[in-house]
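Exam revision sheet. Question 4 asks you to relate a sequence to its structure. Input first:
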Amino acid sequence: MNRLEMTSYEAARERFEWQVPENFNFGGDVVDAWAEDPDRLALIWVNDAGEERRFTYADIRDLTNRFANYLTEKGIGKGDRVLIMLPRIPEWQIAMVGCNKIGAVPIPCVAMLTEKDVTYRMENSGAAAVVTTAAEVGKITGGAKVRLCVGDAPGWDRFEAALAQQSAEFTPAQVAAEDPAIMFYTSGSTGLPKGVLHASRALFSWRVSAWYWLSLAEGEVMWCTADTGWSKAGTSILYGPWSCGATVLFYDGPFDVEKRLALLERYRVNVFCAAATEIRQLVNRDMAGYDLSTLRLTVSAGETVNPEIVRSWSGKTGALLLDGYGQTETLMTVLNYPQMRVKPGAMGRPLPGTEVAVLTEDGQKAATNTTGQLAIRCPNPQLMLGYWNNPEKTAESYLTADGSTWFLTGDTASMDEDGYLFFGGRDDDVINSSGYRIGPMEVENALMEHKAVLECAAVASPDDTRGEIVKAFIILKPGHDPGEDLAKELQDFTKALTAPYKYPRRVAFVEDLPKTPTGKIQRRLLKQQEFAGRKA
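Answer key, structure tokens:
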């Protein structure tokens, strides 16, 4: 479980072999193994009020054993889905790893979800248990047989009290590499969110990006600011860092530039992971008063970091800033690495053990510097098992050509003569705002419930701070007049029906929308219009 010896990228790719075990239980094989050193620090939690809690791997072992015993006593077992909707608090890690130990399938969700969002996930997944906070229990209206709450709520078991009644001894379940192990819900351009189901082999393989991209060593301090429902939290807050024996800093508080810098200094962070939106705001502040000498690496994924930001960040902090590409379905697959030359604007090169190609529409490899479909050769242990209860959608994600099977990412890219990949765009219409993936249908469905809206379309619009924001184009019903007051009303209306980060920050009232001959709205044309206007 030690970090691989740093070497050249070419040598790493040549010598790398996936060594996925036949059985793998992250809780037993990783957490419990590190816990043999009673002093090894696993987690530092701090909030905006300055409260702090520290946990060794031995503490995490005991607490996750208690959690596993609790679920087992309640009749939850291998393969059962457990919805975990918690903010950035230690109970999140305890619940996630506790599920791993019994072979249950945790479904991490951000606390910002609305009752409608949660109800859909509960019903779609058939979740048998739910873990949340007292502040969020009102969103749970489904019939999960086990309800565990951080805090006090009528009809719910209290997290701390429930664990205190359990033994700290537990024998982790045997989990095969292909057994389901975790599920994330991700937004798409059409329809409702999709459940992306990953196998235990994925939890094992996510350590490889921590080895090569994060280059984490035992005892280093890693801080990733991703929210708990993001797949990025899995790789950079939990499974990646703890596979390397690193210490995770976990901060529960709102974004504040000065607070971010103060925490980097106070906790002597070595590796920092943040969305490009955050980095853009941090780099514009004077950092001279902060001691960031321990910070050796910063990474970002989810949206492109502009080359000038990369240069400015490195100049101010002395730390590398490396971009990367991944998806909920694959996690991190194309990355820049500390030991490799970085080309401005490039996503990087494929992770060792991963073969990536740019394909034409007929499945042939595209010519150098030609845009095509970004694809990953199968099999690859990082790839999802599939979309939950959606075999048709899963099948659409794969292409067989010339004897090889490829997973189609849905994104376009080009590859230069040195094997560096450059992001082209999305094949679908997903909006990526500050690292949040927002499906336009989710926004449109909310807007269509308003009495004034006849038709609407939601698309990405460029923004200096967030990369992209949601812009809604709206056709009003007769009798309703456009204006700033109505735009504000529609924004508030959307916030009330779906997660707040999804609301349209820009609203345009229009007379018509571009459509195909069959009547389908052509969001792509609206998006092109937005970005063309930006370039002009």
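Marking note for examiners. The mean pLDDT is 92.
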